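Quick start: what a row looks like.
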Amino acid sequence: MSLSLLDWRRSVTATYGRVRADTDPAHAWLAWRASRDALYAKHPDSPLLPEDRAGFTGLPFAPYDPALRWELPIEETTPERREVPTISDGVVPFERVGLVQLPDLGTLDVWWLDSYGGGIFVPVSDTNPATYGGGRYLIDTAKGADLGGADGRLVIDLNFAYNPSCAYNPAWMSPLAPPTNYLDVPINAGELLSVHR
């Protein structure tokens, strides 16, 4: 791990801290997007390829939709273990610890990263051709991406869905959304496919 990656992680964690502290979700989303754009444009650990960075003007997003934000209880479900091979981290184990019911959209499994440090992981995939086919991330607390929630609940805001690094750079191999985190509807929210890919 490089010190520049440490700086990246600190920046992401600080950004999500500001998101949780902001009482206006749409305002928090705009600030989050600006922070993400700055990291992707200038940070040495940006996943953008050099040729994509040259003309980069910002990550593409759908407009903010307040109807796609909830604070949902984590409901019980059948436990399951998944072991996901990655290029940089070897096999990454996940344990299913529950699910969340998205009104009128379906369910998403809530996963626990079952390795050093642990963390909640909630990816999502959908039928919108403008979103990354491998799925996007909503929550990845091991990397600081945490929208909040209390008393066994999670803030799920599809406007904050973001692409994993592998969407921009083939050198990365990120855990993708399993079939149980697939919504059989198009979600026009969050980060869209890069205009560069």
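That is the whole record. The helical segments are 3-21, 25-42, 50-54. The mean pLDDT is 92.
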